[in-house]
Amino acid sequence: MPGFLSRRYTVVIVDRASGVGRRFSVKLGWTLGTVAFCFALPVLVGLGIRWGTVAELSALRTNTLALEMENHSFRATTGELTDQLTALQGVMEELGNKSAVDPEVARAMQKLPTMIKARAMGGGSTLPPPSLLASALSSPEDTFGLLRNVLGRLESQLRLVRFDVERRQALAAATPSIWPALGWLSAGYGERADPLTGDPGYHQGLDISADRGKPVVATADGVIESASWNGNYGNLMVIDHGFGIKTRYGHLSGFAATVGATVRRGDIVGYVGSTGRTTGAHLHYEVITNGQTINPLPLIDGRR
User: Fold this and answer.
1) Percentage of the chain modeled with pLDDT above 90
2) Is the pTM of the predicted complex or chain greater than 0.85?
3) CA within 20 to 30 Å of 74's CA: 57, 101, 122, 190, which one?
4) Options 2.70.70.10, 1.20.81.30, 2.60.40.1590, 3.50.50.60; CATH of 184-300
């Protein structure tokens, strides 16, 4: 076979018009190699292009898959953040509704001693500083991470706000803000002459004159602490409203609630009478904060 490929061949090309001829001597092996190369070159170029295209397509598929996974992760994260925002919006709307307090009750709350109001106050929380917010824009992952952090802090802050709102609502419910009986004010709070002896004295509540048997109502939400005879007070009911606030209802002709019962503002708890040390049918009403009586009139003035 090597001898066959090494043979030389002479090719004669003659011009018919002039009779001039040319001779070319070629080797069979070189000629076949050249022809084979000419046929193989397009095939090799095509294969190279095909392999390059396959590699590029593979890289594109890999990138596409990575982008799809990243996009799916972003969609999932966005969905979680949207759900969290929706939940927080619902909480804020709920807190907005709960934070509303009757203007008259709010006015009465402002008249309470500072120590009582302080018991219904809570703390606060802070959001990330602006520098941290700016640094979060470097990548989507960092942005999502910061958003989670901000929403988490906001959620924690809203929990504190919810606690504050609930405490304020509880204080509003516990604030004596209505008249305990329908009648006329026959004696105020403070220094006065004793109605029986005329001696100087100090009146620790309000006297509201009314017909015997007229209903007496709780002036705020609370629990009946006691309902029994108590010397000069006669039939006396004491309601514990929490936050260090209590109210007393004296000279009652009868009780309409029992010890330990929970009552709401406006519930009937007894009836006007003249039991104990009194000159006639009336209700003696006191408000006690932290063990000391205060003037009930500023809390209920204007509301009947």
Assistant:
1) 36
2) no
3) 57
4) 2.70.70.10
